[in-house]
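Key idea: predict the complex, not the pieces.
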Amino acid sequence: MSEVERLLVVDDEAPILHALQRTFEAAGYQVTACADPAEALDRLREKPYQVLSADYMMPGMTGAEFLAQAKALQPETIRILVTAAHDFSAAVDAINNGEIFRILAKPWNRVELLGTVRQAFDTYALREKNRQLTAIVQSQNAELAMLNKGLERLVEERTTNLLDGMVAVLDYRDTETQWHSRRVSRFTRRIAEQLGVKDPLELRTIEMGALLHDIGKIGVRDAVLLKPGPLDQDEWTEMREHPRLGWALLQRIEFLRDASVIVLQHQERYDGGGYPAGLKAEQIVLGARLFAVADTYDAITSDRPYRKAQSHDQAITEMQRVAGTQLDPRGVAAFCGLPEAEWQAIRRDVEKISLLEQEWGWTPPKRIFEQIREIASRQKQPISDPPPHVSGS
Ligand SMILES: [Fe+2]
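Result:
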C-alpha cells in the first residue's frame, strides 16, 4: 500500500509508551502515542489508523471497554494488545468479541512485536483491497441490473407496440367496430378503478387483458370470422377456439402472462353459460368479468353493420337486465355509478389518438397508451364537450 502506515499506540506507562513509539518509528511507521485511552479515542475520531496497539490495564476505562469503543469508531482498524501476561485472562472477553487481532506479552520480543505489527498492516491492506473489489463488483452488478431493466422495458415496449398494432389490424378485419379493443380496454380499466382496484400492476394487467381479448382471432379463418350469415357447427367450434388461441399466444410473453388469463376467460358468462370452460361468478377472474361489462356497453353503443348505435341509457337498461346472468352485477353497478360523460370522454380520447395515429402513418412515435393518458390528463375538462357522433344517434 502506498498510503502512509499509521499506528496508534496506547499505554499509560510513559517509559513503555516511549519504547514502543521508538521501536515502531524505527521500523518506518508513522506513530501517534497516547498515555490516556480517552485521548486515544479522540485521535481515532480525527483520522483513520490502520493499526492500533493498546495496553489492557489502563486508568479511566477497562481494556475491553476501550477496545469496544475503538472498534465502534474505526471497525476496520487492526487491533493488537500488548499487555502483562497476568492480564491475559481478563482480556478474554475482548478476544472473544473479535476485537483483537493478536495479543502479545510484556516484556515483548522485538522481532515478534514488529512481525506482528507488519502482519497487522498487511492484513489491513488485504482487507481494504477486498472491500474495494467488493464495492466495484457491487456497483457493476447494480449497473448490470439497471441495464437489464432497461432491456426488459424496451422488450416490453416493443412487444406492446407490436401487439397494439395487431389488435388494431384485428379490429379492422372484424370491421364491426373500429378501435373497439382500445375502447374496451380503457372502459374495463375505469370500471376496475371504480371498484377500488388501486395496484398499478393489476390495473395494467386488466387493461392489457381487455386490449388483447380477441388476439386469438388471428387463428380464425376469414371465411368464419367474416361470414355474414349464422355459423354452422364446425365454424362455431373454430370460432370458440379463439380465447384459448389468444391465451396460448400470450403464454410466451412473460409480462403478459397474468393478462393472458383474462384473454382465456373473456367469453365466459357470470351464470356459467359462456365458453371455453363454462366458469361461473368468482371462478372467472375479475378482469374478465369487468371486460364483459365494458364489451357489452361498447357493443350496444357502437354502430354495427346491421344496426345503428344505441344510446347510453338504452345500454344501461340492457346491462342491468343481464346483470347476474350474463354480467357480474358488481361490475354493472360500478359502471352505472359513473356518469355518461366519463365514458364519452374515454371514447373521444381513443378516437382522437387513433386519428392522430393515422396521420402519423400508422406507427406512433410513442406508446399508444401513454399518449392516450397524456391527452386524457391534459384535457380533464372537455368532459362537458358535445357528445361524440356515435352515441345516442
Ligand atoms: Fe372474443
